[in-house]
Write a structure and sequence with these properties.
The protein is an alpha+beta fold and 125 residues long. Helices cover 22% and strands 25% of the residues. It is built from three helices and six strands, in the order H-E-E-H-E-E-E-E-H. Helix 2 crosses helix 3. It starts with a helix and ends with a helix.
Length: 125
């Protein structure tokens, strides 16, 4: 019985995260996650979901906290869907909640940055 309870509490990293917009605070900067166009989340190896108001916040958190990550998700507002790390790229729009200017788009979008390029842009001084 206890095993079933523990299994029910473990988050499936292959399922998109749930974000309560205007209620959930960014794990990195503390601002409320309010703009779905820039929302991001990561699922840790122990099943905990961490949400972010800007992809730059997620990348900053990855560098400063080095969590054990099971999955990373980024919200593509254009198609109202969540994209995993292997399916996302970033349109360097120049505006985002915390100023990274990284808007998640489908990988392969012309002119978009890869995850590695976006991470470098976000965490570079």
């Amino acid at each position: 019985m206890m095993f079933a309870f523990l299994l029910a509490c473990t988050r499936d990293p292959s399922a998109p995260p749930t974000v309560n917009y205007d209620l959930d605070a960014c794990t990195d900067c503390g601002m409320l996650v309010s703009d779905p166009a820039y929302a991001a989340a990561l699922v840790t190896k122990d099943g905990k979901t961490l949400v972010f108001d800007d992809p730059g916040c997620l990348f900053h958190y990855m560098v400063t906290q080095a969590p054990a990550v099971s999955a990373m998700w980024f919200h593509d507002a254009a198609d109202d869907r969540w994209l995993r790390e292997d399916a996302v790229a970033f349109d360097p729009t120049g505006h985002s909640p915390m100023g990274s200017g990284l808007r998640p788009v489908l990988a392969g979008t012309p002119g978009a940055l890869t995850v590695g390029e976006a991470s470098s842009k976000a965490v570079s001084p």
